[in-house]
Amino acid sequence: MTIAAFSACVALCLMAAISPGPAVLMAARIGLAEGWRTGLALSVGIGAGAVFWATSALFGLALLFQYAPFLLTVLRIGGAAYLIWMAWNMWRQASAPLDQDQQTPALPRSIFSAFRLGLFTQLANPKPAVFFGAVFLGTVPEGSSGQSLVALLAVIFLGEATWNTLIARLFSLEKTRRGYINMKHVIDRVFGGLLAALGLKIALV
Fold this sequence. Notes:
Number of strands: 0
Number of helices: 9
Helix content: over 70%
Structural class: mainly alpha
Strand content: under 5%
Largest sheet: none
Shape: globular
Radius of gyration: 18 Å
């Protein structure tokens, strides 16, 4: 793979990483409610999910969907249901107050739990499956070396993990958090509503 082709693949994947979607929304919400360290673990899970989709694409994901399109439908409906379920939990728990006396965000979930949430959020979203199976795969030259593909996967992971960590960090700042504490019941319902809307959009496309 030439440097130009590698750079084109990287730029395309970074643009996909920063585009608004369930992963970015979840990173913002976790940063607000639980702090940037939990957001970091979540972001690593999001990056792992992106690597899963990219690797699947390189090993024939697009071909599988072409010959068995119902699998993409199953993925889309199942992913949408998962996102809507998470949105419902956000909405239902929106009125539960945070401890006003805490100087740092509470960490109700473990690092592994945060990683798993990030991974499942990415796997539940068929957008990266379609992106990596169609757009991304079309930019990877045939006959690319194994070293080039491993480097590309590493960059995909770093791009997704870094961007979502930055989002979590931004929303975890004390000033932002204080505003969240005061408006938690509204903000959680807004986040839940947006996540549900994304889920419905995925289901109906």
